[in-house]
Structures are given as structure tokens and as C-alpha cells.
Design goal:
CATH architecture: Alpha-Beta Complex
Radius of gyration: 21 Å
CATH class: Alpha Beta
Bound molecules: glutamine
Number of helices: 15
Helix content: 25-40%
Shape: globular
Order of helices and strands: HHEHEHEHEHEEHEHEHHHHEHHEEH
CATH topology: Amidase signature (AS) enzymes
Amino acid sequence: MVATTIKETQEKLRKGEISYKELLSGFLSRIKERNEETNALLSVMEKQSEKIKNVSSELPLYGAVFAIKDNILIKGESCTAGSKLLEHYRAPFDATVIEKIRRNGGVFIGKANMDEFAMGSSSENSAFGEIRNPYDLEKVPGGSSGGCAVAVKDGMCNAALGSDTGGSIRQPAAFCGVVGFKPTYGTVSRYGVISMASSFDQVGPFANSVEDAQLIFETIRGKDEKDSVTSNFEKKEAPKSIKVGIPEEYFVEGMEKEVEDAIKEAISKIEKNDIEVVNVNLPHTEYALPAYEIIMASEVSANMARYDGIRYGLEFDRPAAKSIEEAYLKNRGGGFGKEARRRIILGTYTLSAGYYDAYYIKAQKVRNLIASDFSDAFKKVDVILAPATPTLPFNIGEKVEDPLSMHLSDIFTVTSNLAGLPALSIPCGERKGLPVGMQVIGDRFNEDILFHVSKKLEKIWKK
Ligand code: GLN
């Protein structure tokens, strides 16, 4: 697996060791070699190579070649969100994040395969076939942004943009041995990103180093008038001494021994490096996953309502439907995959008149409790460390018919989405030849400190 950072690429370009043309053709030939096996990219943007000559070497993302998750709009390119419903959709404009990457010198090489509408933890829910893990092609790469993680790990690009609603950047990053970052909710614009659950969705980078992830984040963040929840934040000074917190609630029963082992070993390494490690408590953690499931499904049902084959999405009308209801049934039943249908049905139920208070409102109250657990913890520590996933990458087909065990994959990641916190997944070891990811969770709008600590941790775990 060829993994190059943006920083390394920039150096090679500046020293004249490679040309921009060679850089791109290197990635393109890697795609030709590998994409059939992994199914990471749904479309390849070969024409970009001509435009590349004009990129100024002064720009921060000079030399950065991106794969973009297929739920982010690039003008003129196809954008399927992994769904049959959008198979023929072409984006009429650039998402704000795409505009920003372009302006800063980045280029795009392809659209990355994903779970349908970002719903999934294994990348098996794409209407265009499952994605495979480059460490072992019989294993899943994680999801929903599996294509992004695979493309970065496998050398098809040196960075990617994905979206994270409940772990879809951090979990596949952990399963594929790359860095994945979900920013504070509201720091990155969602304009031009196909929604899944709007109060959780956040765009963020996949990269081969924490430094690259930070570089990308710095270029895509900021207030955007087209997304009313976005805001800017002030730069924070790095603390002189670092204190990290370990929440005991994250070492749960059911966690695979290999993962627990690797995580504990990684934590013991940092204790020898002048970083203070203390225990913290996040007492409501056990309610996080059910609260996430309810709020997420409710928002999914609202966001998916537009794909009725009339306003948006493919029309399945052969033979022609005789009533509007029949048309909806055909279009939505024919267009959505199983997982999307399950969530739409659950979300419609939790939002229905009789059950709204019992489920949706209650889940929102739990959400507040989770957020205040974190606020309390961040009074004592700079960052919190936790496993990114409870298991190693599992086999293709192993969990796809068992939604409950699939959803358990997200047990450690959904909390940051519920509380709107920034969180990064960093490779911290290997077991059975497969990567293990550590999550570093920061306080809201405290990205500067999160990156400062994460760069130190990355160095320790790379040794
Ligand atoms: N795997 C989680 C889910 O299926 C998260 C998805 C995401 O972050 N987009 O809901």
C-alpha cells in the first residue's frame, strides 16, 4: 500500500523530483490497478490532469489530490450518494467545501463509493456494490465513507473528504489504518452535501497524517452564509502540559480482546512521554447509541421524504402507476435499499403524533445529558482518548443481515456527534495484521488543541 502525505508530495514537487503530471498519472495508474478489486471509486475524473498545470505552488493545497465521497457535489460530475435513486443525477453546482479546496489548490481525482445516503458501518449498503478493505479483501473497510478510506490507504490519492453523522469518517479510518477527522458541528459548511441526519452531519478529511488532516480542515472550515449553523472560531493556545482523560465507560463488555489490548498498549506508551493520563467519567454513555438511533432515524425520515421520484430521484413507472400512492410505492420501494427503508420506517414511527414525546423528545433529553457529561470532563482534561471501534474489521457478509450488531460498531463514535464535538481517529497499532484506531476527542471549537495533542500521539504510536 502506497501512502504519501500532502506535505511529502509538496516537497517532491518543489524539489522537482516529480512533475504534477507524473503525480497525477501515478494516482491514475494505481486506480486502474486496484479499483476493480476494492470498488473504492465510483467515477474517475481523468480530465482533471489538464487543468492541473495551472495550480500555483504558493497555494496551501498545492499537490493535494482528493477523492470525494459521492454525497458531496462537484459541478458537472455524477453524485449518487450510493443510491440507485440518484444514479443519473449530475451536480449542478459545487459544494462550499469543493469550492474552498479548489481555491486553495487541491484537485479531484474521483468520487468515492459509500453506503447508500451514508447509512451504514461497513460499505455494504451501496447500490453499486460493496467496498473491500485493502488490508484483506475479505474484510469490510468500515462505513459509510469506506471508499474514501480505501482510496487514501491504497494510494489512489493523498487525501479525501467524507462525511460523519455517527462515525462515518472515524470508523472507516480506523478499519483502513488512516487518519480521519470529524470537526466540531458547525465549523464546516454542509451546503452542497446530500443530507442524512442534519443535526449530526459534518464534512471532514481523511489523510495519511494528522498534519494533513489539519491542513485540509483549515482550508474548508469557516462561516458560510449558505449554511446557517456555521461559524468561525478563535485560535486557541496550546497548553504547556497535556492531560488526557480515559473514560472507563468506553471499555465495555463485548469489545474484542485484540482491540482492547492494542488500545491499552497505546495508552501505556503515552504515559512514558510526559503526558498525564487520568480517568474521567462519562456516566450516560450507555444511552448514547439508542438516543442516536432515534434522532438519526427521525431526521433520516424527514430528509429522505424528497426522494419520491417526482420531486427528486429516479422514476420506476413501468408499467405506469395508476395513482399517486402507487407511484410513491414504486419509486421509493424500488429506489431505496433495505437499510434506508428500515430507517425511514423507524423514523416515521418515532416522529408520529402518539410517540413523538416518548421517543424523539426523550432522546433529545439524553443528548443534552451526554453533552454535559463531556463538558464536565473537559474541565479536567485537554482531550479524551477512547477506542474508535469495538472490533477489528469484520468479514464481508458477517453483519449485513443483522442490523443490531452492525449498529453496535458505532458505539464509541456516536457520542461526539450527539455532543457536536471534534474527534479524530489515529492508527495506534495492529492486531492479526489489521489496524486499530484510537479516537482523540476534543472540546467544542477546540480543534487547535486537539491537533496539537494528536500530532504528539501520532509520533509516539508510529515509533
Ligand atoms: N454508521 C453510522 C450509521 O449507520 C454512521 C453513519 C454516518 O456517520 N454517516 O448511522
